[in-house]
Amino acid sequence: KPRPTVYKKPVDWLPFPWHRRERYNLYKEGGDKIKEISPDPNAPKPDFEFSEELKTANETVRRTFSIATASKGERKERVKRDLLKRIQRHPFDFDSLEVKIALKTIKIRSLYEHHAEFYRKETRISRKILPILIQRRNGQLNRLRKIDEARFNWLLKELDLSFTPPKLGLKVDRYCKKWDLRRLTKEYCEKTIASKKEAYHEELKKEQEAFLEEKRQILAWIEAEEKALKSDNV
Q: 64 pLDDT exceeds 90?
């Protein structure tokens, strides 16, 4: 059971509830639908796909040189090469936005695995480097969307990503408890004033019929007095 949050300065005296806003979780909202590196276990290790002897070797030898017995670095290299074959425009394409985004995606998913493995022990890699890589990739995705939207949509499908571009003119202020309390206090005061005005308006509506009846009687009395004064003057 999680421990209750204890604030240095309590806010129990406020007339409205306040809770600290949840932080943006890059691990859940980074855009990667797949958070692991999963190459084909029967594929050969990097550089062994060119071996003619391996193609004619027995099952034990082929399994020894397959991804099923490979290290994490070899699995990562296998996924990298297979992905680049699909993304590259030509065999020497290593500087295009699509390739840079694909390479960052491989690093990010590798760090996702690292974060899942060492979740209890937060490391510098999963705490600092992963958010930086995700933010840089989002910037490159946004740039590619502006340059070539068709290729941008194609790349999202190839990499199995989801990306929501930032809204134009949206200014995100730095979150802080003091300014959040000031904002909530202002909203609370505005709601209180509006509710009191509405209650007073409803009260006046209820008194309107009696006021109109009193007004009608006064006008009738004035009219009767005017007629009486005119008749006396005659």
A: no
